[in-house]
Amino acid sequence: MAPSNGPPTARSDALSEVLLMLKTIQDDNAHLTESVDALRDRVEVLGFHNDLNQQIPKQPAIVAASQAEPTSLLVTPTVASLSKDVADEATKSPTQDPQRKPSTTGTSRIILTTYPSQSGIDPITMNWGHSDPHQRGPVVVSRRQNTLRRRNAIGAHGGSYSIYHALAVASKDLDAEHRPDFTNTEPAAKIGPFPQWADKKKIVSMDPLGHLAPWLFEDLMQNEDIDIRPTIAITKAHMKLPELERSVQAGRLVPDGKICLNDEGELAVTKIAVEPVWYLPGVAERFGIDEGSLRRSLFENTGGSYPELITRGDIKLFLPPIGGLTVYCFGDPAKMSDPNVKLALRVHDECNGSDVFGSDICTCRPYLIFGVEEAVKEAQNGGSGVVIYFRKEGRALGEVTKYLVYNARKRGSDRASEYFKRTENIAGVKDMRFQALMPDILHWLGISKIDRMLSMSNMKHDAIVEQGIPIHERVPIPDELIPEDSRVEIDAKIHAGYFTTGKVPDMDDLSNVHGRAWDDVDLESRYTSILTVFKACSIVSMELDVEDDLGLMARFGKMETRQILAEFDYRKCMTLGS
Ligand SMILES: [Zn+2]
């Protein structure tokens, strides 16, 4: 409809009036919605603080589950709840409603959140830090039919893999009610128990009973059909790293048939995988914040994924969707906690680009390999050697941020003096690894002192020492293991406080430490393009004008030039030509 340019008629006057009224109603509506939202926010915040003030619900503790009648665990709050029907829904079994279509989540209605006072909500008692496992209780987080009401943790098993689990259920590749068969999955080595396990200030980010859960709480699983899963698994394996074969050749590592198995540098190792389980009051305390702020931030910054962080102040555990860690223990695992033998330890944070794919922009893989080698030597000397690998890619900023920083560095002057600033400009912080929770695993392993700490990080050092674990010696990465292009990183870190036995560079020194720019990659492209011309035109002698090479690249394409580079030696080709 084209707008009319003429004077308004009576009809269009009426139309304008109607439009005006509509606009007023719309505005009023928007106002109303805003007011309701504001009101609801306040109610939620109030409710949240009330929840936080509540103590752990006064329920009978879980005595040895076999002695307790299942009903003795049930406490039914009488307060009618806003979403009683939701709770009722949760307690109904599908057989009660033959009309209902089977759903992948066990109930046809979506349960957005739960409240502590809600009918049917009856969490299994969790006394975090209690020394008696049955008094402490299992970590229960599953939303399976018979477990939903009994949960005492928010989140899901599997850390970041919980999302793949969701996909598997959604695509019907996995039955949501599947029960794991734990036959023969028991730990392959005995760890603990240690007094640290019963100190709720010492372990706040993993479940000290996580490797034993299905066996400790077998009765509860069988009698009440509660879904309880391990969050720690312990196995034994061999491992082979090409650098360690060279260590054997160089005589640094001597095969003993027990820890270093042969001339190829093959190692025997005990491996422990750990998924995060956060005790929220303890995590908050480590960071010097209040539990409410922590819960609110976790809720807001996960896109509102876990409303129970807000509505269930009575639930103190959260299984966050993040990566866990792996312990690599060389030698007898019992020696890790033996104060009479030496312990060498490397705490390593994931760097996929270097650790797996050999990038030379940082010292990660060389330091990791050095850590493994030193750990093996310590174990061979009658002590213990441990490497702990944390999934905290790119200082826990992730690879996307990391690569953006690389680009910014390589397109700038890539000086050590600018190193942290480049990260900070993009991510807002220079590091998000927050080592405050890292020492939990050391407490869990029963480690009470570290003789040789294979790390230069002041953050890791301080976090460990603050947790009451002394470090007797700090061992920096040997200079000869530092790749040329990673000087920028290591010098910037030393300047910022990383440990060194050498000189601490000042800002002047740092501005003289450059990384490799991208020119060399471009240079390589130039050579390959020349070779392409040689091959394509069968010319063995010609005057080369390097300025033309970019044009030649465009002519012959990158893939082919790469291939040719692999097949020919540019210099040989030049000699042939002259
Ligand atoms: Zn790295």
Automatic annotation (TrEMBL):
<dbReference type="InterPro" id="IPR000926">
    <property type="entry name" value="RibA"/>
</dbReference>
<dbReference type="GO" id="GO:0009231">
    <property type="term" value="P:riboflavin biosynthetic process"/>
</dbReference>
<dbReference type="Pfam" id="PF00925">
    <property type="entry name" value="GTP_cyclohydro2"/>
</dbReference>
<feature type="domain" description="GTP cyclohydrolase N-terminal">
    <location>
        <begin position="109"/>
        <end position="301"/>
    </location>
</feature>
<dbReference type="InterPro" id="IPR032677">
    <property type="entry name" value="GTP_cyclohydro_II"/>
</dbReference>
<dbReference type="InterPro" id="IPR022163">
    <property type="entry name" value="GTP_CH_N"/>
</dbReference>
<keyword id="KW-0547">Nucleotide-binding</keyword>
<dbReference type="GO" id="GO:0003935">
    <property type="term" value="F:GTP cyclohydrolase II activity"/>
</dbReference>
<feature type="domain" description="GTP cyclohydrolase II">
    <location>
        <begin position="337"/>
        <end position="476"/>
    </location>
</feature>
<comment type="similarity">
    <text>Belongs to the GTP cyclohydrolase II family.</text>
</comment>
<dbReference type="GO" id="GO:0005525">
    <property type="term" value="F:GTP binding"/>
</dbReference>
<protein>
    <recommendedName>
        <fullName>GTP cyclohydrolase II</fullName>
    </recommendedName>
</protein>
<feature type="region of interest" description="Disordered">
    <location>
        <begin position="85"/>
        <end position="109"/>
    </location>
</feature>
<dbReference type="InterPro" id="IPR036144">
    <property type="entry name" value="RibA-like_sf"/>
</dbReference>
<keyword id="KW-0342">GTP-binding</keyword>
<keyword id="KW-0378">Hydrolase</keyword>
<dbReference type="Pfam" id="PF12471">
    <property type="entry name" value="GTP_CH_N"/>
</dbReference>
<feature type="compositionally biased region" description="Polar residues">
    <location>
        <begin position="92"/>
        <end position="109"/>
    </location>
</feature>
